[in-house]
Every structure is written in structure tokens, then in C-alpha cells.
Amino acid sequence: MDPQLPITNVTETLLAMLPEIFLFCWALVVITIDVVSKRKSETLAGYLSMIGLLITGILLSFSTYGKGFGNMFFNDPMAAFFKIIFISAAFMAIGSSFGITKKKIVNHRGEFFGLILFSTVGMMFLSASREMISLYIGLELTTIPLFVLAAFFKDEKLSIESGIKYFVIGAFSSALLLYGMSFLYGLSGTTDLLSMRLNIAAFHLTFKQIGVVVLISNIMLVAGIGFKLALPPFHQWAPDVYEGAPTPVAAFLSVGSKAAGLVAFAKMFLLALPAFYGTEMFPNDWGMMVGFFAACSMIIGNVVAIRQTNIKRMLAYSSIAQAGYIMVGMLALNEHGLASVAFYMFAYLFANMGAFAAVALFEDKTGSCQIASYEGLSKTSPFFAVSFSIFLLSLVGIPPLGGFMAKYKVFAAAIAQASAHESGQWIYWLVGIGLLTSVFSLYYYANVIRQMYFSKNDSPYTMTYNPAILTVLIIGVLGVLAAGLFPEPVLEFAGQISNSFGF
Amino acid sequence: MGILSWLILVPLIGMVYVMLMPKEKVNLIRYGAVIISVIPMLLSFWLTWDYFFNYSGSAAMAYMEGPYEWIPSLNIQYLLGADGISVPMLFLTGLLSTISLIASFSIKFRVKEYFAFFLLLEAGMMGVFVALDFFLFYVFWEIMLVPMYFLIGVWGGPQKEYAAIKFFLYTLFGSIFMLVAILIMYFTSEPHTLNMLELIDHGPTLSHTLQMVCFIFFFIAFAIKVPVWPFHTWLPDAHVQAPTAVSVILAGVLLKMGTYAMLRINWPMFPKALQDLSFWIAVLGVIGIIYGALVSMAQKDLKKLVAYSSVSHMGYCMLALAAYSSVTAIAGVMFQMISHGLITGALFLMVGVLYDRAHTREIALFGGLGSKLPVYTALMLMFSMAALGLPGMSGFVSEFMIFIGAFGALNKVLVGIAVLGVVLGAAYMLRMFQNVFLGEFNMAKWGGLTEINGRELLTVIPLAILTLAIGIYPKPLTDLLQATLDNLVLLMSR
Fold first, then answer.
1. Domain ranges of chain B
2. Sequence-distant (≥ 6) Cβ neighbours of residue A153 within 8 angstroms
3. Residue A404 forms part of a structural domain
4. CB distance A139 to A177 below 8 Å
5. What is the DSSP letter of B451?
6. What b-and-e string marks burial along B50-86, b requiring 16 or more CB atoms within 10 Å of the CB?
7. What dihedral do alpha carbons B177, B180, B185, B190 form, nearest 10°?
């Protein structure tokens, strides 16, 4: 069905929302069943959540494109694509949580999984909105459960610290975001993003000079969303939060919440404000500003990651850097741009969730997050070492893994943008920085591989896998390989996103 | 599926086979890997034979496979083909891979992983020499880095970790330049394509600046691989730390990928940039020749000496590549690539043989080995003479062709300086030979050394035969190359 066609019938709108509604109810069911069963089973809540996500996925494949409730619910290819990413991220995060729900979170398993599901629902709503109010509500529904999740180890100082940090920063950034949105509302008189695009452009054309109002809202929006994406200079919270939060939550933050931020960014800037992209709109342009932040995040993320000894902090900086690469794709306002962002997210999903699953597994086994303690693992746990290495190499972008395809697509999109427009030459620099820093990134990713493989000693640990985490690792490896070798179906799907945004 | 696909696929099948074997069954893994690698070797022999008799008359690509759509939304195709410059490289890859695998029997720990990585490496090398789609080429180019990283890092010498990451970082650094150049080529062509054969026609139509940019970007990527001075510093580390068989592959095949890629991509695609820069390329080549030779002369470690001699020998290739207008010089490049692959591969094997027994490579510690190890010494003598370019060996033919070609096409003073490299080459090789094999024999220390054994002979004899064969009767190889090179020189002189 054409996504532009409005669904007038309320029942049909609700039907289109069925995956979200189902997942929301299922989260309540999971919590209830956990309580009713007196929290006896170690795995019941986890498996239930995973089944729920699978069912949501199936329901998703039946849901139709279309819009309802004004533009508040707008099911387009972008929504469908990112919903798949959110569901998979939640699935893999939950799959790698079985270790901590066995030992650490004994009394609140249902709540733990329920909150992840609630957050996923928020992300799904967010991706299916083309309207500021529902966008904001979706974003809040995404982050508020995550505050709780980050602080879930109630007895650990680091976890509490991480929860509070994330909460304060999150609240602050939401406020900035709202403030920026209010300016846009004032200029355009609408919360609907597509009408806003027309109204602001018309406003600009009528009055020629609208001062720096759009600039202020641009800064507010970039800062607000930048906090969610951990885009430098708004990244300081990320390493601390990742380090303190339970590892699966950190994984979910780094993929799910990041993807949600990207969706919000794409909706606000590519849907509502594409007219203010270029330098000819100075000072109201946002392209170069975002490009600057992307460059910062690639440089800071990759350089600082080299010095890390804790693997969760290392992955935190790596995810900061990866956000930079994605933003390069976002800055390409052509038919490849958004498609490359979506595809990058897809490849990143498998590699990063897989890497965090490996870290979670190792942490459950040994209690350590130090990179040095991975020494000699290839001899005692070859499957673990091989799959972890594949994830890390994919994050570097070594062909034929998914990460390479993704980087290729992103940089191709950026170069297409730069070569098509005279004023877009600065994007070449961005591409240069991106490629150069991706060489740096090899050093710290390979460092983990070095620990696992190059040591002459055997590791004192041997990994044992529960079925859930084994599934996650296998899905991760297969996903990374498939995204690298046979990406065509996904690329085609991702191409529809660009089309639905009018590129 | 055609023969070229099988060249890539068979080693991959071998890798899967090795991975499925239990790691205690060391012999099943070793012999299995060798037997499987014999298949691509025989295929590459047959390919050379068949190409020589049926296709060498024309410059057209033979054994084309595809283009098959691989990732249509990015115009990425699966496209393979071989011509006069790739067929000898495939021959070399097939031969040296099997030889190296046989030489790898001395690997004692983590055998399973070793052979699996090695076969993956072979698949990647084969792929580079047959890929005609830029993306495919890049994938193969990069895919090799991973097994190479592990092979050096796990089974290497004392400083293996440093050498492994240095190699990886250096090459990846070069590759990003190639990636940018590929993307520029892609987006400037209309309709967008990654097909190298079409882009060879597209390249000269680019603006002069863009040609220069693309040329330099590609050049950096390939020069690091060759390695051209000043990009060579990864090579001594990697060579010295790598296990013997890996050094053989590094010297024999990996370095050739750089020069091969220049001939395949850089040179015919951007003739204008080539004309502007050829003098400087020749300068880099000459610096490499002299510098490599001088540094070799100062080496105390046998393997390091051979490693630096590679820098010098690949310098000849660069010098000849700069003389692009002369078919003789370009043919000299091909001869030098092949003969360096054979000779230096053999030298590394020979050094490995000695190291396995003596556990040191310090030149000063040896002396008079000739009386104790006559067969080994004879072979070493032969390969040293081949390396310094004694007539009758392949090294002489290639250097002769290079100098004849370069003298006509390049600045005469420059070529004159380069000829000095031959003298220096003789100096360091003879000095090494004298110190290790002649003179007083230390019975107390080296009395226990044993003669080269049958397996080791099996690895070096084929190389010795080929070195002699090419040196004595190079005509079949020139015939094989002729048509392709004629066409190439035409393209480069556009």
C-alpha cells in the first residue's frame, strides 16, 4: 500500500499499529507471568520476551504501509526497516542477558525484560511518526525505561552512577530538543513535519531574511539528538554509562537507542529541514555543522578508544566513532544517503550486538571486562574467539564482512553528494577523515584479537554457552556475513527509504 | 563455473576441510591441505599451457567469467578474466602456495589454524590476479590481510605482534586511498561502472587533475604493497618475523600484487598522469635499488638481508615501470616479478632450512658450512648467483631487459646509477656467501648440522629448475607475454 495514502478508518489504523500494541501488551504479560510464577524460573521471562519479539516480527511482516491519526502514525519503508532493527536489537540484547538474570538480577527478571520491550515499543513508535509530538513521545518512551535499565544493578555503585548520569543527561537533552522544536513550531505553525517543511521554506522565501531563528533551533536539535547519539562534544556520558550499565543494556543502548536517535535526526532534518542543508542558507544551514560533529566523533571516538583497557569503554568509544560514520551517510542528501544510513545500521546491528554478546558472555564467566584478560582464549574457546574476531573485523570494515559493505555504501553516498554539488566539496574532507580514522580503528579492534590469538599461553577460562547466547552469536555471525556477501535484498529495501523521503 | 572460479574456490574448500578436521589429526590436516592445494596448482599449470597455445596471440581477456550481477544496486559484478600478465602470476601463486604448504610441515603448534589461514590466503591471492571488477578486486586485496595478520602474529618470531599489526595497518592505510580512487572512478563514469576493462577507456577522459589524483591514490596503495621506497618499512619487520613459508608467499606473491595492480590498473588507466610522473617513479625506483642494496650489505641477519634485497629487486620493477613506452622494459618487469618470486622464494626457503637446524640466522656465527653441507651449499650458491643476476639464470634476463628498455626510455644518468645496484647486489650476496659457506668451519658448534632433507629439496628443486629454464630459454615466456604487453604499451602511450 502506498505510504502516502491516509487510512481513514480507525480500526485499520489500529491494525497497522498491531505490532506495537502487541509488543506493549506482551511486555505486561511477561512482567505479570514472572510475578505470578513467584520468579522461580531463571529463564522463563527471557524466553517469553524473545518469543514475543519473534511474534512481533511476524506481525510486522503483515502490517501495511499507510498513515493514520494525521501524520502521527506513518508506516513507511523507513519505519518498517528500523522496526526490524529495533526488534532484532532487543532480541539479541535479551538473548545475551541470560547470564545476568541467572546470577545477578534474581528478583526483577520480568521487569528487566519488560523494560527492554517497552523501550523497543517506544523506538517503534518513534520510527513510525512524521509529527513532532508523537516523535517526542516515542523518544521519551524509548529513553525512560533505559534510565532504569542502566541502574539495574542496585547494589553496584558504577551501575547507579551510570543510571543517574544517563538520566540527568537524558532529561537535559530532551529539554533542549523540545526547546528546538518549539522554535520550529513557532515558525511554521504546525507540528506535522511535511507541512513544516513547506511552511518554513515558504516563510523563508516570503521574508527573505528570517534571522537566526532556524540556526538556534538547529543547534538545539543537534545538541538534543547529539546527546542521544553520543556525538561529540555531547558524548561524555557514553563510556561511563556503558561501563556501569549491565552489558546487554549497554549493547541495546549502543544499537537500539542509537538507531532511534538516527531516526529522529533523519525525520527532523531530512524531512522537515532539508532546505536548510546547504551553505547558501548561511547562517541557518545545518549541513556543515553536523559534518563538523561527525568529524569530531570519528576522530575522538577512534583515537580515545586506542587507550582504553576496559572493553566496554573501548566499545563505547567505538560506537561513538561508528555514529560519526553513519552521520557522514546522513549528510548525503541523495538517493544513496538515507539508504546507506539504514544499511549501515543493519550491518552495525549484527556486529555490535554480537561483540557485546561476546563481552557479556565473558563477563558472566569471569567477572572481568579488562581487554588483557581475553588472553589466549582462542585455544580454549575457538568458537568464541572466531565469532568475536569476525564482529570486530566487521566493525573495522574488512571485506567481505557487513561492516565493509556498510562503510562502502556510506562513503559512496558521500562522494556522490560531494561530486554532484560545487558547494559540497567539504564532504571530501569528511570522507578522508572517515577513511583515515578507520585505519586507526583497526589498531584497537585488532588489539582484542591479538590478545585472544597471539598469546602462547592457554586462557584459564573455557566458555560455556547457554542456548540463548549461542543463538545470538550465530545470528550475529550469519548476519555479518550475509550483509557483506549478499546485501542486495537489504540494499533494495534500504533504497525504498530514500525514495519515501523524496530523494 | 569456469576454471578461474575454481582457482579461488578450491583453496576455500580446502580451508573448510581443514576446519572440519579435529585438531589432533595433524597429518590429515597437513597432507589434506597440500593435496587440495595441488589442484589449483595443476589448474594454473594447465591454464598457462592452454593460454600459451590458444590465446597468447591476442591481447583480449581469456577465460572470461561473467559479468554476473552480484550487487546490482551498486553495479557490483562478478567478473573474472585472465590475460598475459595474470597467467604467469597465477602460475607463480599456484606453485609457491603448494611449495609453501609443504615447507609448512615444520610448523609444530596450532597446525589446524595455520593451514586454514594459509588456504584462505591462497584464495585471496588467486582472486586478486583474476578479478576484473574493482569491488571484487578490492575484496580479494583486503581479504588476504586477515590471514596474513594471523600467520605473522601467531607463528612468527620474537617481535611478531609488532610486525603483524604494522603490516596490517600499513596495507590498510594504502587500501583506503585505493577505495577513494575506485569511488571517484565509479562516480565519474557514465553509466556508473566498476568494470576495469570499461574504466580503462574511461580513465583518459577524466580531467587532468582528477587523473593525477586517482593515479597518486592508486599508486600509494600499490606502492605500499610492492614496497616502493619510502613505503617499505613494514617489509623487513614482516619478513623477518614471519615463519619461512609465509615469507615465501610474502616475497613471492604479495609483493607482486603491487606491481601487477600497477600494470593492470594504474598505468593503462591514467596515461597522462603517468607521463607527468614517470620521472619521479623512476627516481623512487632507483632510490629503492641503491638503498635496498646498501642496507642489505649492512645486515647481520640472513633473513633480513634477503628481505632488503627484495626492496632492491622490486626497485628494478619500478624503474622499468617508469619506462612505460618500451615493451622491452615492461616485459622486463614481468620477468623480474617472476624471477624474483622464484629466487627470493627459494632463498627464504633455504634460510628457513638453515634456521630450523641452527636456530639462528646470524651471518657472523656461521662459516665454512660448505664442507659440511655440500648439497645445501650448492643450491644456495645457485640461488645467490641467480639473485645477483648471473647470466644463465632468470635474474640476468630480467635485469638485462629492464636496463635495455629503461636506457632507451629514461634519463640515462638515472639508469646509470641504477646499474650500480647490480654491482652492489653482487657485493652483498657474495659477502653473505663467503661468510656463511666458505672459510673456517666451526666443528664444535655446527658439527651437528644435518644436510637438507628430501621434503626440503622437493620445495626448492622446482624453483631451481624454473630459474634455470627461464634464464636459458626465455622465449616461451616472452611469447606468452608479447601480445598483452604490446597492447598495454599502446594503452599507456595514449
1. 274-494
2. A104, A105, A159, A160, A246
3. yes
4. yes
5. -
6. ebeeebbeebebbbbbbbeebbebbbbbbbbbbbbbb
7. 180
Q: What is the pLDDT of residues A182-230, one digit of tens each?
A: 999 988 889 999 899 988 888 888 877 777 888 899 999 999 999 999 9
Question: Would A337 be classed as within a structural domain?
Answer: yes
Residue A417 domain-assigned (yes or no): yes
What is the spatial distance between Cα A180 and Cα A214, in angstroms, rounded to a whole number? 9
pLDDT digit string, tens, across residues B289-314: 999 999 999 999 999 999 999 999 99
Give residue-wise pLDDT tens across range A455-495.
888 889 999 999 999 999 999 999 999 999 999 999 999 99
* Shortest CA distance from B186: residue in chain A: A412
Respond yes or no on whether ipTM tops 0.90: yes
* Mutation site, A377, A398, A445, A486, interface B, largest B CB count within 10 A: A398
The set of cell numbers assigned to A331 is: 549528510
* Other Cβ atoms within 10 Å of A263 Cβ, number: 29
* Dist CA A125 CA B82 (whole Å): 54
The burial of A72, by beta-carbon neighbours within 10 Å (0-12 exposed, 13-18 middle, 19 or more buried), is given as buried
| Count of the separate structural domains present in chain A | 1
The residues on A that touch B, with CB distances below 8 Å, are 378-379, 393, 398-400, 404, 408-409, 411-412, 415-416, 419, 431-432, 435-436, 438-439, 442-443, 446, 450, 453-454, 487-488, 491-492, 495
Q: Chain A within 8 Å of B35 (Cβ-Cβ)?
A: no
Categorize the per-residue pLDDT at A163 as very low, low, confident or very high, splitting at 50, 70 and 90: very high
Question: Which residue type occupies B192?
Answer: H
Which chain B residues have a beta carbon less than 8 Å from that of A431? 180
Residue B191 one-letter amino acid = P
Q: Is some CB atom of chain A closer than 8 A to the CB atom of B164?
A: yes
Give B173's pLDDT tier (boundaries 50, 70, 90): very high
d(C-alpha B186, C-alpha A408), whole Å:
12
Neighboring chain B residues of A493 at a CB cutoff of 8 Å: none
Q: Do A454 and B142 touch (CB under 8 A)?
A: no
Which residues of chain B have a CB within 8 Å of the CB of A491? 71, 73-74
Nearest to B168 among A400, A432, A442 (CB): A442
Q: What one-character DSSP code corresponds to residue A134?
A: H
Which of A338, A344, A439 to mutate: most B Cβ within 10 Å?
A439
State the SS3 of A437-472.
Answer: HHHHHHHHHHHHHHHHHCCCCCCCCCCCCCHHHHHH
CB < 8 Å to B165, chain A: 442-443, 446, 450
Determine which helix (DSSP H) or strand (DSSP E) holds B171, and give its type and residue range. helix B160-188
Distance, in Å, from the CA atom of B203 to the CA atom of B79, rounded to the nearest integer, reads 19
Q: What b/e sequence results for B289-299 when a residue is b if at least 16 CB atoms lie within 10 Å of its CB, and e otherwise?
A: bbbbbebbbeb
Could you tell me what percent of chain A has a pLDDT over 70?
Answer: 98
Q: Which residues of B touch A399 (CB under 8 A)?
A: 138-139, 142-143
- Which residues, numbered 182 to 211 in chain B, qualify as contacts with chain A under a Cβ-Cβ cut-off of 8 Å? 183-184, 186-188
Do B180 and A432 lie within an 8 Å CB cutoff?
yes
Cα–Cα distance measured from residue A485 to residue A389, given in angstroms and rounded to the nearest whole number: 17
Q: Which chain A residues are closer than 8 Å to B189 by Cβ?
A: none
Full residue range of the structural domain in which residue A495 is found: 280-503
Within-domain flag for A240: no
Q: What grid cell was written down for A20?
A: 506495537
- How many residue pairs from chains A and B have C-beta atoms closer than 8 A? 76
